[in-house]
Specification:
131 residues; Globin-like; 6 helices
Amino acid sequence: MKNDITNYHDIEQLVHRFYDLVVKDELIGYFFNEVAKVNWDEHLPHMVQFWDTVLLGAGTFQGWPMRTHLMLNKQEPMKPEHFERWVTMWNSIVDEHFEGPIATEAKNRAKIMKDLILFKIEQQKDRNIIQ
């Protein structure tokens, strides 16, 4: 039996393993490596803080991820299949290493984020705004 996600170290492990796959992925790695040109030394701790806040209520994350995604979409259109891949990869890493209520919540939150970002991208097409 696997353990649930219970602390910062678990979140850190999850995020690092996930992005180890993302950077190599043929469909979405391009967005991180070529479009956003992510500085991984800065991005990974930020993502750990994000998920630590979302899943464990740490309150350490500061940022505006929706705006970041909308700006990236203006540079290179992001499509539903990109977000589907992101969620599929996220879920596989969660399932590989964890099980329990918080692990399930991690997968639920990823789907909610995917749906919300895609909704905002669609809104952006009509209104040409960044929110």
